[in-house]
TrEMBL record, chain A:
Subunit details: Component of the nuclear cap-binding complex (CBC), a heterodimer composed of Cbp80 and Cbp20 that interacts with m7GpppG-capped RNA.
Domain of life, source organism: Eukaryota
InterPro entries per UniProt: ARM-type_fold (IPR016024), CBP80 (IPR027159), MIF4G-like_typ-1 (IPR015172), MIF4G-like_typ-2 (IPR015174), MIF4G-like_typ-3 (IPR003890)
Gene3D superfamilies linked: 1.25.40.180
Lineage: Eukaryota, Metazoa, Ecdysozoa, Arthropoda, Hexapoda
Species, as recorded: Drosophila busckii (Fruit fly)
SUPFAM superfamilies cross-referenced by the UniProt entry: ARM repeat
Keyword terms, alphabetized: mRNA capping, mRNA processing, mRNA splicing, Nucleus, RNA-mediated gene silencing
Record function comment: Component of the cap-binding complex (CBC), which binds cotranscriptionally to the 5'-cap of pre-mRNAs and is involved in various processes such as pre-mRNA splicing and RNA-mediated gene silencing (RNAi). The CBC complex is involved in miRNA-mediated RNA interference via its interaction with Ars2 and is required for primary microRNAs (miRNAs) processing. Also involved in innate immunity via the short interfering RNAs (siRNAs) processing machinery by restricting the viral RNA production.
BP terms from Gene Ontology: 7-methylguanosine mRNA capping; mRNA export from nucleus; nuclear-transcribed mRNA catabolic process, nonsense-mediated decay; regulatory ncRNA-mediated gene silencing; RNA splicing
GO MF annotation list: mRNA binding; RNA cap binding
Protein known as: Nuclear cap-binding protein subunit 1
Family: Belongs to the NCBP1 family.
TrEMBL record, chain B:
Pfam families given in the database record: RRM_1
Keywords of the record: mRNA processing, mRNA splicing, Nucleus, RNA-binding, RNA-mediated gene silencing
GO cellular component: nuclear cap binding complex; nucleus
GO MF term set: RNA cap binding
Protein name per Swiss-Prot or TrEMBL: Nuclear cap-binding protein subunit 2
PANTHER family named among the record's database cross-references: 20 KD NUCLEAR CAP BINDING PROTEIN, NUCLEAR CAP-BINDING PROTEIN SUBUNIT 2
InterPro entries per UniProt: NCBP2 (IPR027157), NCBP2_RRM (IPR034148), Nucleotide-bd_a/b_plait_sf (IPR012677), RBD_domain_sf (IPR035979), RRM_dom (IPR000504)
Annotated family: Belongs to the RRM NCBP2 family.
GO biological process, one term: primary miRNA processing
Function: Component of the cap-binding complex (CBC), which binds co-transcriptionally to the 5' cap of pre-mRNAs and is involved in various processes such as pre-mRNA splicing and RNA-mediated gene silencing (RNAi). The CBC complex is involved in miRNA-mediated RNA interference and is required for primary microRNAs (miRNAs) processing. Also involved in innate immunity via the short interfering RNAs (siRNAs) processing machinery by restricting the viral RNA production. Component of the cap-binding complex (CBC), which binds co-transcriptionally to the 5' cap of pre-mRNAs and is involved in various processes such as pre-mRNA splicing and RNA-mediated gene silencing (RNAi). The CBC complex is involved in miRNA-mediated RNA interference via its interaction with Ars2 and is required for primary microRNAs (miRNAs) processing. Also involved in innate immunity via the short interfering RNAs (siRNAs) processing machinery by restricting the viral RNA production.
Domain RRM: 30-108
Length: 732, 154
């Protein structure tokens, strides 16, 4: 140990000398100038601490800071807290830094603690749980760095448990306790045991939710899906079994034991102000799922078992990088690779892919958009083409194998991500591995997955491309060519005469009035047929691109408006015409229906009514109709004008409408369908309804009771009732 | 490393207004310029990709000034700045039709800007290119004019 420490110190001195040499010119004016530059360089050094092997600059950092301390205490503390929030897992390095300063300046140690305490109180009061956890991690490490007494930290953790009205408090204690547990174990064992006893009581009486069933990515699966707090508790218990010896943690303060042990320690006296009466936003419970089993990992690498606290630390490291860098995909991927390169003996690339994919699939919603995870995975593949692409193949195959029990909301995100991923890798895939799904029922999840996936690939490329890239055996799952079907080509159809006239005048660039006149003159045709003819004609003429058809819509807006205004049947007829002409083009059906809403020609509730019309029943098992429903919700949210109250009412009305219609459809299906296990249609409809409810949890919460009222009329639809019941329990 | 939503060094020389006005409109803009597209990439494909970052308000395809056919660029406008930033972050430098496409801020579409500004009607960059790019009409325009007589003689 001594020898190691000496080596360590030498290397930091070398580093110091090197920096001095390089930075000589840079440092010169700093002395005469102001302290601003030094603060900048402190910020950079704090940043550097967070990098692998960044501890080497600790000595330098404390040298730099020492000179500035008296005058710039507040700035330095601000920088410290800021760095901590970005890189909480580096709390050991930050604690050592504070520890070294505390040795020379006891008062700074006191100020630092009072600042951290104040920040913690604020975070607790505001319900900023993540921030509170980060502060607690640092406080725990400050015990190890000999700044804070173990007993006062124990008191603080006990005080948090006193306040535990919610899992969040237990989570805070369980996250931070292991960092100083060894210290407590050696010095205050009885106190540690008492705290663990309290935690155990809490964990036993905690009603770990039945409603969490709903959050499972896979309903039946051998893969673990743990309640986040229960998992953490198991991991803590496992660490206790190891006598609190942590291997995966950087403990830079051990290199400075000699110096640090000479310092005086501080006490934390006050108890945290826990807002007992205020309504706090508590973090929602979630599940932690795993994809890879130990047998899936390479022979030369391993991972700590999932119930080991070390695994929790690895997850925290990866999540920290993701959280702070997800918007900068290149930097994020580079940091993830650096983290994994620093631990070559661990199967970190597997862990990274698993975490990214499963967070993307997380229910009720992922923290970031699907494409965000997609681009980070793409960058990882670019940086390490010999490891990540293979791991992704492995992961996709594992998920594919479990599609039959996958929640539909996750299924849809998986389709979205994988189509985009393929489009960035020339659509290369071992399709033949999935050949068995050709023989499955056409609504079986595996067959459905390939079908939906190919449709999305087609949207990102083109039909011919998809046909060419697929092995011949997949013909039954290929998308139909998305070409228009203008029915009035057949001159015997009623309305064909009018269609021909309209085609001629519109082609010769006529005015709106001429079209209006022709429509009025065709008195022999019922109004809905006239609308069908007009819409089909416009769509046919504009079939070359969105721009073409949008231009025609805009040009003839006045006529369309006149027909649509306040007349629901006419609005339905407009949608009907789109769905007839573009019957094989799902993208156009959705985009054009959205366009009509944005042009204020049709109302969102008409879209809902149309989607659930009996003619579209077979289509309801497909992804695109539910996308259209989501689009109509988005439209209501973002584009409709009116007071806030009106908007809320409209949204409520729309969402309740969707639930009501879906319930009716499910009830009808149940009357005619096979037993529940093979009724794939209901699986898709119920699953997508749940997906919509999950996507709008905040919207639904205020009127949750009304959902109950709606489904209470459908007593025999057991699966629907169960889903709504679980959902309401979850959002409560 | 710079942030992926920062302005690039490119400035449209035809902008009507001062340099600082231009910077300001770029910083508030919800419009993006999308470049290095294949001539064959359609509006529908662009909508599918950019729709994954937000609600697309409008797509304006870049056209050859004379032939009125797509010439490898377009403008995408979103409703909000956040959506446009997401596209800068998640689409710039990724593939569409197997080409790495470029996404950059644009000060907002003005009629006329949908046309290529090169002498031959397409984008200027396609005039001076010396490589062969099947997705963008083969060799650069100037080069292919030189090559063309030869092929005629054969």
């Amino acid at each position: 140990m001594n020898q190691y420490r000496r080596l360590r110190d030498e290397s930091s001195e070398e580093q110091c000398a090197l920096e001095l040499e390089q930075g000589h010119a840079r440092k010169q004016p700093r002395r005469s100038n102001n302290a601003k530059e030094t603060l900048v360089s402190i910020e950079q050094l704090l940043q550097k601490l967070s990098e692998p092997n960044g501890e080497s600059c600790l000595t330098e950092l404390s040298c730099e800071v020492n000179g500035l301390l008296p005058r710039h205490k507040m700035e330095i503390l601000r920088l410290l807290v800021q760095s901590l929030q970005l890189h909480p897992m580096q709390c050991g390095a930050y604690a050592t830094f504070v520890g070294l300063l505390n040795v020379c300046d006891f008062e700074f140690g006191a100020d630092c603690l009072s600042c951290l305490r104040q920040q913690l109180w604020q975070a607790l009061e505001a319900g900023e749980w993540q921030q509170a956890r980060n502060l607690l991690l640092l406080l725990a490490e400050l015990v190890n760095a000999n700044v804070l007494t173990a007993s006062s930290m124990l008191q603080l953790l006990n005080a948090l448990l006193d306040a535990a009205q919610h899992d969040c408090y237990a989570w805070l204690v369980l996250s931070s306790l292991p960092l100083l547990a060894r210290e407590l174990y050696e010095k205050l064992e009885s106190g540690l045991q008492a705290l663990l006893k309290r935690l155990s009581v809490y964990m036993k009486q905690r009603c770990s939710g039945v409603q969490l069933q709903l959050l499972r990515i896979w309903t039946l699966s051998e893969r673990a899906q743990h309640d986040y707090l229960e998992l953490l508790w198991q991991q803590v218990l496992q660490l206790q079994g190891q006598h609190w010896m942590l291997q995966q943690l950087r403990r830079p303060y051990t290199n400075f034991d000699g110096t640090l042990s000479s310092a005086l320690q501080h006490q934390l006296t006050e108890r945290p102000a826990v807002a007992a009466t205020r309504q706090l936003r508590y973090a929602r419970a979630h599940l932690v799922a795993r994809l890879f089993a130990p047998a899936d990992l390479p022979l030369s690498q391993q991972l700590p078992a999932e119930l080991h606290f070390e695994r929790h630390l690895i997850d925290c490291h990866i999540l920290e990088i993701l959280q702070s860098q997800h918007l900068e995909r290149k930097r994020c991927a580079a940091l993830l690779c650096a983290y994994s390169a620093a631990h070559p003996q661990l199967a970190l690339p597997h862990c990274i892919v698993e975490l990214l994919l499963l967070q993307m699939l997380q229910l009720p919603a992922a923290p970031y958009p699907t494409i965000n995870y997609g681009v980070i995975l793409i960058e990882l593949c670019k940086l390490q083409p010999h490891s990540f692409p293979h791991i992704i193949v492995q992961a996709v195959d594992l998920i594919f194998a479990q599609l039959p029990s996958m929640s539909v909301a996750c299924f849809d995100r998986f389709v979205d991500w994988f189509s985009h991923h393929l489009s960035n890798f020339r659509y290369q895939w071992n399709w033949l591995d999935w050949q068995q799904c050709i023989h499955f029922h056409q609504l079986h999840p595996c067959a459905m997955f390939v079908r939906e996936l190919l449709k999305k690939c087609m949207r990102l490329s083109y039909h011919q491309h998809v046909v060419q890239m697929m092995p011949a055996a997949f013909a039954p799952l290929l998308p139909v060519a998305p070409v228009p079907d203008f029915k009035y080509i057949d001159e015997r159809l009623p309305g064909a005469q009018l269609a021909k006239q309209l085609l001629d005048v519109i082609r010769s660039k006529c005015t709106v009035e001429v079209v209006g006149g022709l429509l009025e003159a065709a008195t022999e045709l019922p109004e809905e047929l006239k609308i069908n003819v007009l819409m089909q004609t416009l769509l046919h003429l504009g079939c070359k691109s969105f721009t073409h058809v949008f231009c025609l819509f805009t040009k003839f807006h006045a006529v369309l408006k006149l027909l649509a205004a306040g007349n629901e049947l006419n609005q339905l007829a407009m949608l009907q015409a789109i769905f007839e002409l573009w019957t094989n083009n799902e993208q156009l059906k959705t985009v054009l229906a959205e366009r009509l809403m944005k042009m204020r020609l049709i109302k969102p509730n008409i879209v809902v009514r149309f989607v659930f019309s009996s003619a579209l029943k077979p289509e309801l098992s497909k992804l695109y109709l539910w996308e259209l429903l989501n689009v109509s919700i988005r439209y209501t949210k973002q584009h409709l004008q009116g007071s806030e109250q009106q908007l809320t009412e409209q949204l409520e009305c729309l969402l309740l409408g969707i639930v009501q219609h879906a319930a009716v459809a499910l009830a009808k299906q149940q009357a005619v369908a096979a037993p529940a296990e093979t009724d794939y249609w209901s699986h898709w409809v119920l699953g997508r309804l749940q997906g919509i409810l999950f996507a709008h949890v905040e919207l639904v919460r205020p009127f949750g009771d009304k959902l109950n009222k709606i489904v209470s009329d459908f007593e025999h639809c057991k699966r629907l009732l169960k889903m709504i019941e679980n959902y309401l329990a979850y959002i409560k | 490393m710079s942030s992926s939503v920062e302005l690039s060094s490119y400035r449209d020389q035809h902008f009507k207004g001062s340099r600082s006005e231009q910077e300001r409109s770029l910083r508030d803009s919800c419009t993006l310029y999308v470049g290095n597209l294949s001539f064959y990439t359609t509006e529908e494909q662009i909508h599918e990709l950019f729709g994954r970052c937000g609600d697309v308000r409008i797509i304006i395809m870049g056209l050859d000034k004379y032939k009125k056919t797509p010439c490898g660029f377009c403008f995408v406008e979103y409703y909000t700045r956040d959506e446009a930033e997401a596209a800068m972050r998640f689409v710039n430098g990724t593939r569409l039709d197997d080409r790495l496409i470029r996404v950059d801020w644009d000060a907002g579409f003005i009629e006329g800007r949908q046309y290529g500004r090169g002498k031959t009607g397409g984008q200027v960059r396609d005039e001076y290119r010396t490589d062969y790019d099947a997705g963008r009409g083969g060799y650069g325009k100037l080069l292919s004019q030189k090559i063309a007589p030869n092929t005629d003689n054969r």
